[in-house]
Every structure is written in structure tokens, then in C-alpha cells.
Predict the 3D structure of the following.
Amino acid sequence: MQAPVLPETAPFTTEQRGWLNGYLAGLFSGGNLAAVKSTGSVAGGAANAPGAPTKSLTILYASQSGNAESIAFSLGDRLKGASAGEGFVWAPSVSSMDAASSIEWPSESHLILLSSTWGDGEMPDNGKSFWKWMESDAGQALSHLSFSVLGIGDRNYARFCAAGKLLDARMEAIGAKRLAALECLDTDYESGATAWKTRIAEALGAGASTVSVAEGAKAVSTGWSKANPFAAPLLENRRLNAKESDKDTRHVAFSLAGSGLTYRAGDALGVWPVNHFELVDSLVIACNASGGETVTLSDGQMISFRAALLSKLDLFKPQRSLLEALMESGPAQGDRRRLRELLSDEGEKDRDELLANSDVLDLLRSFPTAALKPQVLASNLRKIAPRLYSISSSPLAHPNEVHLTVGVQKTNKNGRVRLGAASSFLASRVPLGLPVNVFVQASGHFHPPEDPSKDLIMCGPGTGIAPFRGFLHERAASGATGRNWLFFGDQRQETDFLYRDELLEFRGNGVLHELDLAFSRDQEEKIYVQTRMVERAHELWAWLEGGAYFCVCGDAKRMAKDVDAALKIVARIAGGLSDEQAEAYVGKLTADHRYLRDVY
């Protein structure tokens, strides 16, 4: 379909008109326009006689953002009712790993494990207790099983798929029988996950053709999704920091009117970004191209080079294969020698450091004599990935809308200003009223307490406030009677007190019973949310002992670890527990689903 082009008389600035024409070109040429939803459904599984005897199959997932969980349930749907041989059909049971303690393992025969990896190679929260059990002698209870493991990670991190690899190695060590080899998937995991599910089905004797048809029919019936996003008009883009702030945080709102999309407070919104035009132009020039050349993407789609760079390819995380392509392009002697060194076994450390600190343009400019053809560059870039943002609204308080709290990423690196793909897109390159492709990523665990009488403690510094704004609106709109306590912090109170007026209003009308603030740069000594937690250890302990839920949102590498450590300090100070007892106490909070984290 030919993309429309806005006329010169359209009521937009030259910059806005250029963005719109490029955006529409990317949408139409890429087939990324939201499709018409289907309400039909097709039953999954093979055609077996009603009442056929079943054979159990346990599928356990550990998922921080929902990807492993989604694949697990998709696999369960594919295998349900499929032939298990000898007149039996599979009856999959899908649950998170922290529910594994209720399983009667002696009666099980097959186990499929799926786990993402987050932070510095860590197991997701809902997999930690299962992993601790697996590591102990009790884990021998799984030795009689046939198993397979799927790991999801990000190759840009040194401990890629560490959680999945640990699970796989442990199952092998205790003598379990391997059903299929360990599969490790990168952030662009969709096609790999589909192929893995087919291999699992074949290994189970379920037959690939029948389950594939069933899954294809199910995918059509699910409506708006990551593969079929909704074009949501932008309603609001408001800066939350004062102009004097070092930060730029935006409140961004979209309309969901007419979409039928639903979400819960605590879910995430996936946003498909469009890359910055200046970056795309620079890459086109670096390839000595015009941008109009046709390139073929990994899925067989044929698209213009410029449109591919705009909305189909990741321009921020180069891979080793790009260095190999630069080497094969015939660079001059100096560039060839350096590339050869980087690609050698001895150059692994320097290569990893270069890739971690460069975007695609940096890499091309580092080797100026190694000019790549458009198709070669396109073939050696990963597909662009959607960005997930914690939803900062409540469907009860904000019907037909969804809100985000977006920290705009802007850094100076390698002599250039780098802008975050999605954050700069939302903050400065989408005119009000124009659509952005979005989808809801449901959270399986991170929501306000189902019992409205339960107390809720929330810890969310910076943009970590996002879900808790939604929680507070939800609790207010639903009439929840449980108390609410928020720990919030940022750099400076005068410039970085996000949602100040709303929070003070919640404090004044009794929705927010306790509000502890920590602004790190307002005094010589740095004060953080974990500082405030320890200061109020006895009150915090009393809330926890009274059944309160404790929720954390924000940076996984530092803040979340510091808050976790502070929570154990609280247990020692106010609860009189030993180090081991404090560790066990926090572990039980997690196992009881009262310690919930949305970390990234």
C-alpha cells in the first residue's frame, strides 16, 4: 500500500510534516499498521476423541516483565489436547516457579522450564525460591524427569541468559533426561520462540503441523498485541521537572478510545519507537547511499533502506557480525588490522568494550574506509525492539486512557549527543493527536493487593513513581480501605518532585497516609529512599507485621538491591532478627507475594 504524503498546506511545521511523512512511510512500507481485530477462535491441539486419557506436562516460568510467562502459556495452548502417543493426549499445567512447592513431583514425568534473566545475571523474583530449592538436596526430586529449558536474555550483557543456563546445568547435574537442548534467546526472541515451541512439540511426539495451525488461529483472535499494535493518539506530553533541572521527565498520555484495550494498574505499555531522523540520515550518508535503495529484512519483507532504518532496525546495539561485515567490505590496511585484532580471540575484551560503548553510527565512523552497502548493513542489524514502560494510570480513574512517566535519555558519548530511541520519540517527535503504535504487556505479579483492606508500602524513586501513581489512583477510585505509604526520591525537591501536586493532594485527602521524601542533592550528605526506610524501621516493621504489601519499582542494578538490603536491615533493627532470619523473612515475603518488584 502506498503511504500518504501530507501536502505543504497541512497545518504543521516543516519539522512536524517531515516527521509525519517519514512515520507514515515506515508504517505503510513495514506493514506495521494495526490490523482489524478478529473475534473468531479455533480450539488448540490435535483432533482427538472426546474423553481421551491425558498425560500431565508441567511448564514452569520465571518472568520479570512477562515475556517468559507469555511464551509458557503459548506453549501450553499449543500442546493442550495434542497427541502424547498410545491413545493419550497432553494436559499441560502452566504456572510460575514459585508455585512449584505444590506439585507432586513423583507423579510427574516431563518438565519444561522457561526463565528470563535480569540485572547482573539474576533469576527473576518468582523463580528465586524454586532455584534455591533446586540447588539443595531436595532438588533430586526432579532427577527422574525429562526436561528442556528456554532462557531469554540480552546479548549486550556479559551474563547472557545466566538464569536459564543455571537451570539447565542443574537439571543435567542431578541426572534428569534431556528432552531438547537448552535454547537461549535474545531480546528479538519471537521467531526463535516459535521455532523452539515447534521443537518441543516434536520432541513430545505432538506433531508440529497440528499445533502450529492451532497457534496461528489463536494469534489472530487475540486482538491488539506486540505483533499487532494499536495506533493510539497522543493526548498529552507534559514536562514534570522544572526547567532548571538536570533531568527531563515527561508525563505522556494516550487515548485508547475505540480500541477495546484493557489493562490493570501495574501492567506495562509497549511502545514501538521511530528512530531519530538525523541519526538515520547520518547512517545513510555513512553508507554512501540515497536511502531509497530496497533492502530485504530477515523476515523477507522488502522495504526502502531509509524506512528500515527509521522503524525496523536497532541502531543502538551493534553486534559482532557488524564488525565481521566491516572486515569483509575491503577496508584500508589500518582499519583491516584493527578489525582483525578485535575479531581475534585475544581481542575479546576490547571487542566487547567497543560494542558496549558504541552505537551503529559510532562503529561505522570508527572504520571510515570500510563502506557498507545498504543491504549488508541491514542484514547485520537486529530488529528494533519495543520499549516497555510501567503504566502510571488506573483504568478506573482514567477510562479510555493510558499514561506513562518517561525519563528522556540524553547522553554525550564519543563526541556526539545520543538520544534514547523511544524516550526522545515520545518527548519531542510526536505531535499531539498523532498515533503511536502501542500494546499492553500484562504483569502476572505486580499489582495492588487484591484485598482492598490490606496496607500497601510503595518505594519508587525517580521514574519508579510511575506504577505507584497508578496504584494510588486505583486505590482511591475503588474505595480501598487499606493504608498507603510512599517512599519517593530524586535529585532536588524544587525541580524534581514528580507529581508533587497530586501526591500532596493524596496526602491531604487521606488516600496517602505516609509520604517519605529523599532528595539526594539537597544536602551535602546523599539521602536516598533506603535511608528513609531505615530511619523509620520500627513503623515499617509494624506495617509489615500487620500484613502490608511492599512494592518496589526502578533501577535493578543499584536502587532495587539497596532497598532489598535496607528491608533486611529493618528486619534486624526493628524485628530483632539475625542476618539469616532477616534473609528468610524477606524470602517469605517474596514467596507469599507480599514483596513485589518491577525493576529494570
